[in-house]
Amino acid sequence: MHVMPEFATVALVVVSEHRFAQLLDFHRQMLDVLRSVTGFGSHTLWKDADFQDQYRWLTLHSDADSAMVGLNDWIESGGADRLVGELETTLSTVSLKIDWKNGLEPGKTALNQAMSMSVRRAEPGFGADLEAEVHDVFENMTYMDGYLGSFYGSNASLSEELIGIAFWTNRMAFERSLPQRPPYELRLLERIA
User: Which pLDDT tens digit goes with each residue over 36-46?
Assistant: First the structure.
């Protein structure tokens, strides 16, 4: 059964290159745990294009409850403790309720395709203005060459912060989409699992 994702979690993990094979093993183990969770959508692994030791897991669920069950199952399996211990790292996560989506979902992207991730913050009380601006940007992206899909949503812990994620055929397509000087934090990643 296909799940309509409405909730996303992005987990940043910093891992040295010599532990990359272990990271892939953890990815597969986590995927095995998550597949049994009702409401699970997809779980993909992305490598940062600029910081070679940074990776991000992007996990989609039907809702926040499903995401919490997935996290608890992963913790109960011992996976979280093993990940931190064996890879000598920590996880930094952000969760968002998806407010808008279009096109291809992350689980349908191919290996080596690109993902851009932007983080934008509004001044207190101006969240609606920022969302309208982000909505216009994401609507316009749908017409760009190499665009595959996208979504954005509010940070579940900080409502004035919007996180936007877009999928591209490759790095060149992403770079053609950029404004001259992006006024916000922007990362480019490549799908590796």
Answer: 999 999 999 99
pLDDT per residue over 45-63, tens digit each?
999 999 999 999 999 999 9
Tell me the two tokens of residue 104: 């291809």
In the 8-state DSSP scheme, what is residue 15?
A: -
DSSP of 94-129: EEEEEEEEEE--GGGSPTT-EEEEEEEEPPTT-HHH
103 within 8 A of 150, measured Cβ to Cβ: yes
Distance CA 42, CA 48 (A): 19
pLDDT tens digits, 124-135: 888 889 999 999
Distance separating alpha carbons of residues 9 and 63, to the nearest angstrom: 11
Please tell me the distance from the alpha carbon of residue 128 to that of residue 155, in angstroms, as a whole number. Answer: 14
Residue 151 forms beta bridges with which residues?
Answer: 101, 165
Answer whether 54's CB lies under 8 Å from 48's CB: yes
> pTM for this structure?
0.92
